[in-house]
Amino acid sequence: MLRGFCIAAFLLMAMSAAPAANGLNVKIGYLGRADKTETISLIEMPAANDGVAGAELAIDDNNTTGKFLNQSFSLQQLLLKDEDDPAAAVQKLADNGISLIVTDLPAAMLLKAADAGRQRGVFFFNAGATDDRLRQEDCRANVIHTAPSRAMLADGLAQYLVWKHWTHWLLVVGSHAPDKLFADALRRSAKRFGAQIVQEREFKDTGGARRTDSGLVQIQSQIPLFTQSAPDYDVLVAADESQVFADYMPYRTSQPRPVAGSAGLEPTTWDPAFDQWGAIQLQSRFEKKFSRWMTALDMQAWMAVRMVGEAVSHVNSDDAKAILKYMEGPDFALAAFKGRKLTVRDWDLQLRQPILLADGRTVVSVSPQQGFLHQYSELDTLGIDRPETKCKLK
Amino acid sequence: MWLRFILGIALALLLGGQASAYRAYVANERSNTVSLIDTDTWKVVKTIKVGQRPRGIAYTKDQKYVLVACGDDDTIQMIDTGTNTVSDTLPSGPDPEFFTASPDGKFLYVANENDNTVTIIDIARRAQVGAVQVGVEPEGMAMSPDGKILINTSETTNMAHFIDPAKHEVVASVLVDQRPRFAAFTPDGSELWVSSEVGGTVSVIDPVKRVVKQKIEFAIAGMRQDPIQPVGINITSDGKLAFIALGPANHVAVVDVKTHKVIKYLLVGQRVWHMAFTPDGKYLLTANGVSNDVSVIDVAALKVVNTVQVGELPWGIAMSDH
């Protein structure tokens, strides 16, 4: 036993750049957004630490594990405004010896950060951007995605709606670019799983405040007008990532119809009401530490930092290349309270994961749905599969 | 074998068919009850109301109580086996999930899932006497047959922790696959088996060298690997066969302990979780969480011979020693 320990300690010394006497310290960076999006619902307004809180909890979890392996983990956070230069932020973190960075940045900023980090040997975990282009034509060999893609979210929702035989959709699309991208994903999913979009309508953002004293009266009469005279449909599917109208749809449509997409039944990676597969334990840990509920962004950041912890416990090194190689290899698996192991797609570095369907109070279902089969993994029925990929990792 | 059978019949006749009846206590996680099954009739003879989210369940050594960990009530309740009512509680610490006892039955070692802690309780004094810090989400608990090493598995840390039960200290930790749920020693103490629910394997650990010497993998014809999630492990008292509950795969794997090879898969109820042998070793009962029933496996024939409906989400089973 003593001899085994000595050998392990020697290996640690040999493999690590950090002084072995103090063990292995793995530094992780976090690049977040300084400006948070305003939401329609007051109870969904993101907390200032949305996302990074998940990363901090995962650091705690990694350190609890690490104390048995003489490994420790730390986090350094930088918040960027829209006009800030992500490349400079990456240089700053790299100068502090950080080569693993979790990001919650818009796609364009993430790409700038990734390309700046490449020369410094920095690897990124995209916890915030759902853009499919980051997994397709704009994929990068140094970016792993713990955030689901819009295609995965739309597929998760579509499978359930088709399973319900709610195959006739009225698609309402917002007027901003992200809304249109989500609508693209929903159209693709409808086609893949055999749903029919009976009509599309655009909901124009005409500006104005989300919170006004007489707002309810106006919305109550506006939404029935907006949704009337549609061909017969089973479900209204809203694409409104910009938080302009979707939450105003439930209970206000002209016809009595359920709402899904950006309101009503929403596809997501996490929900505060989720308690299956041990999730209750993570929810309790999170609430105890931060006195608030855990969001999908918190979960996506938690998974990124836990992926690092999981890999480091096996490779026993803080070398980013070795860590990434392990994550992309056949032995890696992450347990993340989803009832099955999560692994990395080798064609676009997207984390395979189930998609929850939540109505704001409970989790209604978890996709992939039964019966949607795949020759390799049912999780690959969600999102861009290997044969369709446009990603060339470099 | 035959002698035992004849003896059994004789005894059964002598005592009017009551003698071979054992009692199985099944913790129903969702309905907050314990179902009491009579193993003669395979019927639920009583449903006992207990605290919230009952999971880990076991007899005390003196057979006077069945202990049940009520996670959401932060307590372990003591069911008096004479009256079959809850008569006392143990100070388990927060969110107790699973526990094991010292070989003399005096101490109880409890995994506190939300607190990264194993709490040590003096059962007679109903008092906490120590605590050991372990990894994230401790769950599986096992004591070596000689009582010298206590094992705890931590689900998010993915380790089996070796704890000195006298010193209340972690003395070694062994990495296993993802989400280790359960630990069991072979009866001779020569091997420690740890199931990894999400990893889909059972690690066979050499408890002296404290290294994984083999991983047992499972493959069921026509089934994808994803739902094959090993949880409960029960090894026959002669140390020959291990039964491994495969969770949502709805099967129990039968493994030859010597060769570590799977020899059969038995179809049971849905989401098979923890199991218990009848004291005579003839039957193995499995708690099937999703189908809300208990499957009865004939150990000699390796066949499922009965199914008993219990409460909602049966999690674990306690069976007396005699």
Describe, in plain words, how this protein is organized in 3D.
The complex is a heterodimer of chains A (394) and B (322). The longest helix of chain A is centred in the last third of the chain and has 20 residues, at 296-315. Chain A has two domains: 12-148 and 271-353, Response regulator (Rossmann fold), CATH 3.40.50.2300; 151-265, Response regulator (Rossmann fold, 3-Layer(aba) Sandwich). In chain A, helix 2 (52-66) runs parallel beside helix 9, helix 3 packs across helix 4 (107-118) and helix 9 crosses helix 10. Chain A has a five-stranded parallel sheet, with helices on both faces. Helices cover 35% and strands 18% of the residues of chain A. Chain A has helices spanning 2-15, 52-66, 86-95, 107-118, 150-163, 177-193, 215-227, 279-290, 296-315, 320-328, and strands at 24-33, 71-80, 100-103, 123-126, 143-145, 168-174, 196-203, 235-239, 259-261, 266-268, 334-335, 341-342, 355-358, 363-367. In chain A, strand 13 and strand 14 (363-367) form a beta hairpin. With 394 residues, chain A is of the alpha/beta class. With 322 residues, chain B is mainly beta. Chain B contains one helix and 28 strands. Chain B is globular. Chain B starts with a helix and ends with a strand. Chains A and B meet through helix 2, helix 8, helix 9 and strand 11 of A and strand 15 of B.
